[in-house]
């Protein structure tokens, strides 16, 4: 009989073997997993749980909030605020940081999350998910400030996501590869299903919102045109396009079978570097992809080396199979060089 390893056992064994997971970080990851389990149950109830539809409000980015957006955000805060492992939290759904109340002990970690990525998919029963990133608070001053969160992605100590689809799957890295866990609803635990996930360097699949093509930079148009030309074009092979409209679902597909995901800058909002959030989406997903042997850039530089300057900073994203990401990045850099 195959040994079934729970998330708790996996984290304990990781802590014992090489000390990669300190006790407080292990506790934090277990609490986040429990919160994701609660969110999964709320998602699965759908209309039976009266959680569908718009909440009639907007988040800090001016996007309409779904009822489940708010429920997921509150679930993560309530689960994590009292345990003593966190100093503060930041969410895509909140304008500022959430400092752990004085009535609870403060820990050494900072948690950032997109509580429910892919909100537009909620009402049509397609995959959505929770994305999270963990930083360590610097001890050079008392209290907690926005500046504590302004750390590049290379400073992350843990990152992952939970995808709510046909199965509820938790994907995690602490800097020692990528592991996947599926929720066993009968047992009530996340069970390890795969370790050392690897992404092939080459692929024939790309994910992008083609309806925005007219707004892209020329290097992105060039790359997509070459993919669409298929085996008769310069790439000499046929490509398939996939687009779920939820980053968590597109990244999960890439981790499972390879591919490249692109959400580039476009001309509609030229003053913004991109659409996706650096702190809540791009950094954690980039680390997972890199830990699985892939690459991630903003079309010009490694995303995890970008120095954040604001909590809700946006960024262009190209991530996935290494050779394709490098090609897209090269096209942009060559175009920049020609324009000098």
From TrEMBL:
UniProt entry keywords in alphabetical sequence: Carbohydrate metabolism, Cytoplasm, Hydrolase, Magnesium, Metal-binding
Its required cofactor(s), as named, are: Mg(2+)
- Binding-site residues, substrate: 117-120, 209, 275
Q: What class of enzyme is it?
A: hydrolase
Could you say which EC number(s) this protein's record lists?
Answer: 3.1.3.11
Q: Which pathway or pathways does this protein act in? A: Carbohydrate biosynthesis
GO MF annotation terms: fructose 1,6-bisphosphate 1-phosphatase activity
Q: Which residues make up the binding site for Mg(2+) 2?
A: 114, 117, 281
Q: Which InterPro entries match?
A: FBPase_C_dom, FBPase_class-1, FBPase_N, FBPtase
Q: What is this protein called?
A: Fructose-1,6-bisphosphatase class 1
UniProt key word Magnesium: yes
Q: What does the record give as the reaction this protein catalyses?
A: beta-D-fructose 1,6-bisphosphate + H2O = beta-D-fructose 6-phosphate + phosphate
Species: Comamonas jiangduensis
Q: Which residues bind Mg(2+) 1 per the record?
A: 92, 114, 116
Q: Which Pfam families match?
A: FBPase (PF00316), FBPase_C (PF18913)
Bound cofactor: record note? Binds 2 magnesium ions per subunit.
Where in or outside the cell it occurs: the entry states: Cytoplasm
Note the subunit structure. Homotetramer.
- Which residues does the UniProt record annotate as the domain Fructose-1-6-bisphosphatase class 1 C-terminal? 199-332
Specify where it is mainly localized: cytoplasm
Q: Does the keyword Cytoplasm apply?
A: yes
Task: Tell me which residues make up the Fructose-1-6-bisphosphatase class I N-terminal domain.
Answer: 6-195
Against Gene3D superfamilies, the record matches this protein to: 3.40.190.80, Fructose-1,6-Bisphosphatase, subunit A, domain 1 (3.30.540.10)
Family, according to the entry, reads as follows: Belongs to the FBPase class 1 family.
